[in-house]
């Protein structure tokens, strides 16, 4: 048993069962602080690690939005949860085609993991870029902002409630015998959403909502936009989406605490609503496939293939399919794109015009 798991069990023995939210927060904090989880040798692979095309198109998106913002002399280009720094390096290389944008860039990375900060520093230095690091959005300097978050919100803790005949009871993690197990708080809580049938699970992403609010407030005040990409859906919806990945395989979320990547699917309606309540405009949802096609990923793949060897061309084709294909074979329809902007920006590249459709009841 790891030292982390021993500590976690001691905490439960001392304080009683933890909420799922606290369990996720502790496990994810340990997980990200102690490793680089990305890539074939890690636990999961993200879009920027599949192909440079992903970051490049995000870079062109940023440059286009900067133009639509009337080209502010300085713009804070921010990424939350930058992983290895690959997306930012690819994005800013592609954005060099707009020299004015290059001159206006001030790069900020929000990252809590010391291990990944090191990795980001090395990757950006390799591309001749400098950046400043932050623990959260609060310490970002004022001014117009262009923010990107890819597979960030899925890594934030959520509260889970289970419908019982007493009402919604919060889901807990305790110890039974030798194993960590799920349980329920005895007292129910009243929540706005009604349970349909016993056993229904409701996820409440309070940490994500707080970040989306702060982001909305910031963009409405200082101008700019944010691009949020994740495996998710437009809710509200019921269902337990907590999952754990280790070495590219699903594992029991309680089996190896702090050693597996814990995620939930992102309910984008919470993010859009929270940001809109602070005065920002929401755009989307688009599927990742539609978004990348609208930004010209096929043309980019063709251009790269013209300079590639036959095996390289095949791998570009495979990456294109993986990023844009629908269904279980690709990320094209499972991943979604939501953007937030200053209300003065009425449309954004690659996204449907108008606010997201109202939630289905
Ligand atoms: N965007 C990257 C990495 C996704 S993994 C990519 O697409 O490859 C999630 C990232 O979020 C990691 O960099 C992780 O360290 C970071 N992270 C997780 N929780 C965080 C938090 N609360 N604040 C800031 N960064 C966080």
In short:
The protein has helices at 3-15, 20-33, 47-50, 52-68, 86-94, 99-104, 114-126, 206-222, 268-277, 288-294, 297-306, 310-324; strands spanning 18-19, 75-80, 105-110, 132-134, 145-150, 159-164, 167-176, 179-184, 201-204, 224-233, 243-246, 249-251, 261-263, 266-267, 281-287, 335-341. The chain is α/β, with parallel strands linked by helices and 361 residues long.
Summary tags:
361 residues; alpha/beta; Rossmann fold; 2 domains; five-stranded antiparallel beta sheet; binds S-adenosyl-L-homocysteine
Q: Overview of this structure, please?
A:
The structure is a single chain. By secondary structure, the chain is an alpha/beta fold. It has two domains: 3-30 and 158-203, no CATH class; 35-156 and 206-234 and 257-341, Rossmann fold (3-Layer(aba) Sandwich), CATH 3.40.50.150. The chain is built from twelve helices and 16 strands. It has helices at residues 3-15, 20-33, 47-50, 52-68, 86-94, 99-104, 114-126, 206-222, 268-277, 288-294, 297-306, 310-324, and strands at 18-19, 75-80, 105-110, 132-134, 145-150, 159-164, 167-176, 179-184, 201-204, 224-233, 243-246, 249-251, 261-263, 266-267, 281-287, 335-341. The strands form three sheets. Strands 2, 3, 4, 5, 10, 14, 15 and 16 form an eight-stranded mixed sheet that branches. α4 (52-68) packs across α5 (86-94), α8 (206-222) packs across α9 and α11 packs antiparallel against α12. It is globular, with a radius of gyration of 21 Å. The relative contact order is 0.15.
């Amino acid at each position: 048993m790891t030292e982390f798991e021993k500590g976690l069990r001691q905490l439960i023995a001392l304080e009683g069962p933890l909420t799922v939210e606290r369990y996720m927060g502790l496990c994810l904090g340990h997980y990200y602080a102690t490793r680089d989880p990305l890539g074939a040798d890690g636990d999961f692979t993200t879009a920027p690690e599949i192909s440079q095309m992903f970051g490049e198109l995000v870079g062109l998106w940023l440059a286009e939005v900067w133009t639509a913002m009337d080209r502010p002399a300085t713009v804070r280009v921010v990424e939350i949860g930058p992983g290895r720094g690959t997306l930012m390096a690819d994005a800013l290389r592609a954005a060099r085609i707009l020299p004015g944008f290059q001159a206006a860039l001030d790069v900020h990375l929000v990252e809590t993991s010391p291990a990944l900060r090191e990795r980001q520093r090395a990757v950006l230095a390799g591309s001749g870029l400098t950046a400043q690091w932050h623990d959260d959005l609060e310490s970002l300097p004022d001014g117009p902002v262009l923010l990107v978050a890819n597979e960030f919100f899925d890594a934030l803790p959520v509260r889970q409630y289970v419908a019982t005949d007493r009402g919604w009871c919060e889901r807990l993690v305790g110890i039974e015998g030798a194993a960590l197990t799920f349980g329920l708080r005895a007292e129910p809580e009243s929540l706005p959403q009604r349970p349909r049938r016993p056993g229904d699970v409701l996820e409440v992403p309070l940490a994500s909502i707080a970040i989306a609010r702060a982001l909305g407030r910031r963009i409405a005040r200082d101008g700019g936009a944010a691009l949020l990409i994740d495996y998710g859906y437009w809710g509200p919806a019921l269902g337990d989406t907590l999952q754990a990945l280790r070495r590219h395989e699903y594992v029991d979320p309680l089996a190896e605490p702090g050693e597996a990547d814990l995620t939930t699917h992102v309910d984008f309606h919470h993010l859009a609503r929270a940001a809109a309540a602070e005065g920002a405009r929401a755009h989307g949802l688009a599927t990742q496939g539609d978004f990348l096609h609208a930004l010209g990923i096929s043309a980019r793949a063709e251009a790269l293939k013209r300079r590639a060897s036959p095996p390289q061309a095949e791998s570009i084709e495979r990456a294109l399919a993986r990023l844009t294909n629908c269904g279980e074979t690709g990320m094209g329809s499972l991943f979604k794109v939501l953007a937030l902007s200053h209300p003065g920006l009425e449309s954004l590249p690659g996204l449907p015009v108008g606010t997201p459709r109202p939630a289905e009841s």
